[in-house]
């Protein structure tokens, strides 16, 4: 059984899509906690509405980064988390967390990595860069998380075509739609593998 921690900084639509898929498809996984660095994140209120523990844990609350990382790890261990999904989480994951959860942290990114990844490449900035580069296709990527932004091994990608009249906003909506199918599909594979 995968005991999943979802890390999210925004409204939580990928978290919601994953939660719905787990409930509807009954695969061997459950989201046991949602963690956000943003106290106003929609993902936190969404989690509470599903009766899932939700915590605002931000580096700003702690004297040092070490104490912050310790608090995150403590929270995860106390809930028996064995898998982490980054779903719109806007902070770099510390090496201590990567070591503790090696090959058990995945991220969803709104572009076809390795293009349009790295620092500053999040949210609408990604789609603006893709449109500015006159790309014919974009999409979503799920990858393992390592110590470099968006550089971990790619697990799966889904492509979308870019129309000549697409704006960053219309492209964002197209990509989000495929993200909502891609993330649950990948997590389901990990969950089923964990049962073997």
Short description:
This protein has 196 residues and is an alpha/beta fold.
Your description of this structure?
By secondary structure, this protein is an alpha/beta fold. The chain has one domain (2-195): Formyl transferase, N-terminal domain (Rossmann fold), CATH 3.40.50.170. The protein has helices at residues 13-25, 42-49, 65-78, 95-100, 124-132, 168-195, and strands spanning 2-7, 29-36, 54-56, 83-86, 105-109, 137-144, 154-161. A seven-stranded mixed β-sheet has the order 3-2-1-4-5-6-7, with helices on one face. Strand 2 (29-36), helix 2 and strand 3 form a beta-alpha-beta unit. Helix 1 runs parallel beside helix 6 and helix 5 (124-132) crosses helix 6. The radius of gyration is 16 Å and the shape is globular. 36% of the residues are buried.
Helicity, in percent?
A: 25-40%
- In total, the number of strands is 7
Percent range for β-strand residues: 15-25%
Largest sheet: 7 strands, mixed
CATH architecture: 3-Layer(aba) Sandwich
Order of helices and strands: EHEHEHEHEHEEH
Number of helices: 6
- Topology-level CATH name: Rossmann fold
Strand order, largest beta sheet: 3-2-1-4-5-6-7
Structural class: alpha/beta
* Distance between the ends: 10 Å
**Which CATH class?**
Alpha Beta
Q: CATH H level: which superfamily?
A: Formyl transferase, N-terminal domain
Mean pLDDT: 95
Shape: globular
**Total separate domains:** 1
Radius of gyration: 16 Å
Unreliable parts: none
């Amino acid at each position: 059984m995968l005991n999943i921690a979802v890390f999210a900084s925004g409204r939580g639509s990928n978290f919601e899509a994953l939660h719905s898929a787990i409930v509807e498809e009954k695969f061997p996984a459950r989201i046991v906690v949602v963690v956000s660095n943003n106290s106003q994140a929609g993902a936190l209120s969404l989690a509470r509405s599903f009766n899932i523990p939700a915590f605002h844990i931000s580096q700003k609350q702690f004297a040092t980064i070490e104490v912050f990382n310790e608090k995150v790890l403590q929270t995860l261990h106390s809930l028996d988390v064995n898998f982490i999904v980054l779903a719109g989480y806007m902070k770099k994951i510390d090496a201590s967390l990567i070591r503790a959860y090696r090959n058990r942290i995945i991220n969803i990114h709104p572009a076809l990595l390795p293009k349009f990844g790295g620092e500053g490449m999040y949210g609408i900035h990604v789609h603006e860069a893709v449109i500015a580069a006159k790309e014919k296709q974009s999409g979503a990527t799920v990858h393992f998380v390592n110590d470099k932004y968006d550089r971990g091994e790619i697990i799966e990608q889904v492509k979308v075509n870019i129309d000549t009249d697409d704006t960053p906003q219309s492209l964002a909506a197209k990509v989000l739609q495929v993200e909502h199918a891609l993330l649950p599909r990948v997590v389901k594979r990990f969950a089923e593998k964990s049962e073997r």
